Amino acid sequence: MARVFVITGPSGVGKGTLIRNLLSRVPELELSVSATTRRPRPGEEDGVHYHFLTDEQFEQRVDEGAFVEHADYSGRRYGTLRSELEKRTAAGAPVVLEIEVQGARQVRETMPDAVQVFIVPPSREALRERLVGRGTDSPEDVERRLGVAEQELTACDEFQYRVVNDRLEDAVSELERIVARELRAG
């Protein structure tokens, strides 16, 4: 079976940016497109950035067992569709999952061989600045995400690898080293 890389960390830590850079450096990696009940942000496309589902559609898929993992996060639901992951791994492609901490824990239970990486902000203040600076969330959503982030940061020791996203280039290089090491070992 192809390697699965779980990249997690609090909202606003830069998971998406790190993964985009990682994918450009390690072209054999494929990104699994997650499902969510949140509304698309400007420029996001269904099936490309996320599979955007209604609450009812999401719940139906939960009932059908269609998710490898799913979680409630900051008032929204997110999950990895089993079909999305199986399509990529069956083709032999190593896959990256960008998921929340709750989901990463579920994947650890069902896929113990998955490589788990926790992205850490350089500081809590830097995390706040990133969430505010991206301009995609209301002040209430930013505060809710920061509250969840506080809880999630206490979980970083549960994960096989930790990468501090202080300087983007350094963090991407560290992720690339982890992936290369695990692909060689895999």
From TrEMBL:
Write one Gene Ontology MF term: ATP binding
Swiss-Prot/TrEMBL keywords: ATP-binding, Cytoplasm, Kinase, Nucleotide-binding, Transferase
Q: Where does ATP bind?
A: 9-16
Q: Where in the cell is it found?
A: Cytoplasm
Which ranges carry the Guanylate kinase-like domain? 2-180
* EC number(s) given by UniProt: 2.7.4.8
Q: Which GO terms describe its cellular component?
A: cytosol
Parts forming coiled coils: none
Query: Which domain of life, per UniProt?
Result: Bacteria
Q: Does the UniProt entry include the keyword Kinase?
A: yes
Q: Which reaction does it catalyse?
A: GMP + ATP = GDP + ADP
Pfam families given for it? Guanylate_kin
Does the keyword Cytoplasm belong to this entry? Answer: yes
State the family it belongs to: Belongs to the guanylate kinase family.
Q: Which PANTHER family match?
A: GUANYLATE KINASE (PTHR23117:SF13), GUANYLATE KINASE-RELATED (PTHR23117)
| Physiological role | Essential for recycling GMP and indirectly, cGMP.
The family database entries (HAMAP family) matched by this protein are listed as:
Guanylate_kinase
Q: What is this protein called?
A: Guanylate kinase
User: Which organism does this record belong to?
Assistant: Conexibacter arvalis
Taxonomy, top ranks, is: Bacteria, Bacillati, Actinomycetota, Thermoleophilia, Solirubrobacterales
